[in-house]
Predict the 3D structure of the following.
Amino acid sequence: MGTTGRPLALVTGAGRRIGIGAAIARKLAETGWDIAFTYWPGYDERMPWGRDDETPAELTAAIEGHGGRAIAVEADLTDPSAASRVFGEAGDVRGLVLSHAESVDSGILDTTVESFDRHFAVNARASWLLIREFARQFTGPHGTGRIVALTSDHTTGNLPYGASKGALDRIVIAAATELRGQGITANVVNPGPVDTGWISPALAAELVARTPLGRLGRPEDTASLVAFLCSPAGAWINGQLLYSNGGFH
């Protein structure tokens, strides 16, 4: 427990104000958690949206506005030593939410070895190392530990992303059994297409047509499910891959 008396959650990949990670951090703070969060400007610089240097301060203010303590950690998760450093800066973590991702479109014929390796380093290896570090340092009561990871089943034209997310699924579901002695639950959430600024108008129309509820997903939709899984009410859900996508098909 932190100095506020609230449990501490570590949320990775919370570097964009309109991203899923930031929405999860805000929602968890609203529901009673202190929040440590990671961000990495180097990734955003390579992406069309560019880096957002204001988000860490804004997210910190939002968390504190909900009565929580905020710890911002800049971390390049391609570095195998990053996981232990992040936990060293965060403290006594009781919930781990893996929302970081490397995602650069390419297919079977045009994916480079460098891109393939980077996707697996960030999406699979770093997730394993973060889960391992969490389990090693966890001291909470049996049944109170939480792991939730965000995944995707999109692989066509996005091969290294989808393949590495598939590896992530298996790692997290293994954790649900392997960490049973500590009473840590581990689940995967597939949020489907979420509007975080990457969807063109033409693609949005196509995705909405394939969603029975008739709209795109919002970061807050995913955040609500993650907050439930991290709550005492979600304690009996374990080892599951859950779809939170409005029925998208």
